[in-house]
Write a structure and sequence with these properties.
By secondary structure, the chain is mainly α. The protein is built from nine helices and two strands. It is globular and about 70 Å long.
């Protein structure tokens, strides 16, 4: 039973081919491509409004130099949001529950923001490692602490996204299993757990959207520090 709860986080294979690649490419099929009549198409209009709102929200705290990252951050936001929401459907696989994938997204983008700061303003970027007015005896310790906190940023991004989605999926499976088991024994308690399951599912939809937003927002804040 314990093993079956975690089977949902195993990457599915078909004839030795990992299906995670299909799950990563499938969200792109949900967004329609613009056509000649895209102005009168409600779906395309809603899609354009949604992308514009996300881009505006992410680019507001950044200056004009950071607006070059608009396409990358907006695409990442939509990508994570689509995968997280599709993973809540029955008999689906959520790639963002894999720590390796989340780190593969977080580390290169964090490194890009860091290298951008070292290239454009090296003094200011290195100045973040030592707060102004620090007593001389504390300088070596603070440099080590700030360097460690800087290096664990991509790990924190990946672990945060993985832990929140994994915990939510496990809770949904545990409560749904309890609802099915109690249905024939105690129908009243089963109905109560079904109501809890419904509320938890609504909460997990909110968590899926919030975690995608937090992931990209933190990357934009890291970028703001370096431009």
């Amino acid at each position: 039973m314990n093993l079956s709860f975690f089977d949902q986080f195993m990457s599915p294979h078909l004839l030795g081919i990992p299906l995670i690649l299909i799950s990563l490419l499938f969200p792109a099929l949900l967004f329609p491509s613009p056509r000649n009549r895209w102005v009168t198409n409600r779906i395309s209009t809603l899609q354009s409004w949604f992308i514009y709102t996300i881009t505006k929200q992410l680019m507001t705290p950044l200056n004009k130099k950071g607006h070059k990252w608009a396409l990358i951050l907006s695409s990442l936001m939509i990508f994570l949001l689509s995968i997280n929401l599709l993973g809540l459907l029955p008999y689906t696989f959520t790639p963002t529950t894999q720590l390796s994938m989340n780190l593969a997204l977080a580390f290169p983008l964090w490194l890009a923001t860091l290298l951008t700061g070292l290239r454009n303003q090296p003094s200011a970027s290195l100045g973040h490692l030592l707060p102004e007015g620090t007593p001389t005896p504390l300088i070596p310790a603070l440099i080590m602490i700030e360097t460690t906190s800087l290096l664990i940023r991509p790990l924190a991004l990946g672990v945060r996204l993985t832990a929140n989605l994994t915990a939510g999926h496990l809770l949904i499976q545990l409560i749904s299993t309890a609802t099915a088991v109690l249905f024939s024994i105690m129908p009243a308690i089963s109905l109560l757990t079904a109501c809890v399951l419904l509320l938890l599912t609504i909460l997990e939809v909110a968590v899926a959207m919030i975690q995608a937003y937090v992931f990209v927002l933190l990357l934009s804040l890291y970028l703001q520090e370096n431009i």
